[in-house]
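The following record pairs a protein chain with its ligand, adenosine-5'-diphosphate.
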Amino acid sequence: MSVINISGVKKSFSKNKYALKGIDLAIEQGDMVALIGPSGSGKSTLMRHISGLTLADKKTPSEISVFGIPIQQNGKLHKDIRSSRARIGNVFQQFNLISRLSVLTNVLIGGLSRVPTYRSLLGWFTDEEKQEALDALERVGLRDFALQRASQLSGGQQQRVAIARALMQKAEIILADEPIASLDPESSRQVMEILQGINEKDGITVVVTLHQVDYAKKYCRRAVALRQGEIFFDGRINQLSSDQLTQLYGIQQLDQQ
Ligand code: ADP
Ligand code: MG
């Protein structure tokens, strides 16, 4: 069953310059998909469309749905996307956490979409919720950091807190946009292994953008490669040939593979 369905999505930010040139894509439940491609190819724009943070062009018929429920149609946000959004956990490269709050509170916030609005406004958390948040932190190896301020953590640790927050949210899909772009190799490995672990153990569908291919090859099954706003390759990542990689990234990048 596909959990994300995208059809006909075009996006231009300025006249005649298309960030996305007509994207059709279905993501299957439980898959771990790498969205790859050089900088500027449209990866982040596509991710933002799935969450409904960016709207497709109105003049072209298009639809994006999650679990069969539309997020946007023909460039208009569907009227009730609250429940769909609650099923999607976002992990971004930056601006992930509320830096002055504790790690624990940042994780607890992930669960707010599951409680009644009046309580989320008051910011109450039950003991059960606190325990659940501590368990989520345990999963990402940061149980001992619960009471530190988020800003005191390293970049890699902050990404792991963002993943714990998505677990607290009971997200069924995680969209991670360049989660390792600014991390050292050891932190990158930890973040990718955690994403892989929750994909395998919890069956959470993971879509992760990576601007280089090596981590995608190591941790993901399927690759969708974007080039200049178009799908250039879609298939098993080990079937991406070196010729295709050269076309995708140019010769310099290939030398680094
Ligand atoms: P990637 O994530 O693959 O690096 P992006 O999705 O960020 O690529 O960008 C794709 C194209 O869309 C680029 O040409 C970028 O400059 C343009 N773009 C993205 N967001 C905006 C925006 N908010 N305003 C104008 N242009 C944008
Ligand atoms: Mg990007």
